[in-house]
Design a protein that fits this description.
Distance between the termini: 24 Å
Bound molecules: 5-O-phosphono-beta-D-ribofuranosylamine
Strand order of the largest sheet: 3-2-1-4-5-6-7
Structural class: alpha/beta
Number of helices: 6
Strand content: 15-25%
Radius of gyration: 17 Å
Low-confidence stretches: none
Shape: globular
Order of helices and strands: EHEHEHEHEHEEH
């Protein structure tokens, strides 16, 4: 009998630059029968990104692109995405801001996860800044990507309470746990009835 599983799942690319805990989580999610996505390729701008090991472990194609010339890198990435018939891009700790021109090719089809309650605390060192400002809550956000940093339409957020003894490290871990629940939840909400 011909195996049909996965045939109608959305061909997805995940972009990373670092540790890849969200990538690992998305891979595991994608392997569930009910998942609407299948991860076809992992793209990194860093050859040393630890997350690339998850691509290897789960036998997913991976490619590294040198962003010293971003225009050329994006052009080559687009070629690969086309070749792999990619219809959705999940940024997961990808530390580059994609150009308007690139994003135009995937309008409304690039998602990102950010470790704060956007629009607050865009950019880097989120947890340090949140704690310094004595916020009571922080959290994570999944949003659409535009060429303006961490500014596209918010799709879903999860709030966490900051404890009195919180450090940037404990807060990061607390929020990461929620990120791993939130990203699949958004994908289910957007695509599970296709
Ligand atoms: C996460 O906190 C994510 O929200 C942010 O970068 C971090 C990536 O972590 N965009 P990981 O590489 O997925 O472990």
């Amino acid at each position: 009998m011909v195996k049909l599983i996965g045939l109608n799942k959305i061909p997805t690319a995940v972009f990373i630059s670092g540790k890849g805990s969200n990538l690992k989580n998305l891979i595991k999610f994608s392997l569930l029968k009910r998942s609407p996505i299948v991860i076809k390729i992992v793209i990194s701008n860093k050859i040393k990104a630890k997350g690339l090991l998850f691509a290897k472990k789960y036998k997913i194609k991976k490619k590294i692109f040198n962003f010293s010339d971003q225009q050329i890198a994006e052009k080559n990435i687009l070629k690969d995405l086309k070749k792999n018939k990619i219809k959705l891009i999940c940024l997961a700790g990808f530390m580059k801001i994609l150009s308007k021109k690139f994003i135009k090719n995937f309008k409304g089809k690039i998602l990102n996860i950010h470790p704060s309650l956007l629009p607050k605390y865009k950019g880097l060192n989120t947890h340090e800044r949140v704690i310094k400002s004595k916020e009571k809550y922080s959290g994570c956000t999944v949003h659409l990507v535009t060429s303006k940093l961490d500014s596209g339409k918010i799709l879903m957020q999860k709030k966490v309470k900051i404890s009195k003894t919180e450090t940037p490290h404990t807060l990061k871990n607390k929020i990461l746990k929620q990120e791993h629940l939130l990203y699949p939840k958004v994908l289910m909400k957007l695509y599970s009835n296709l």
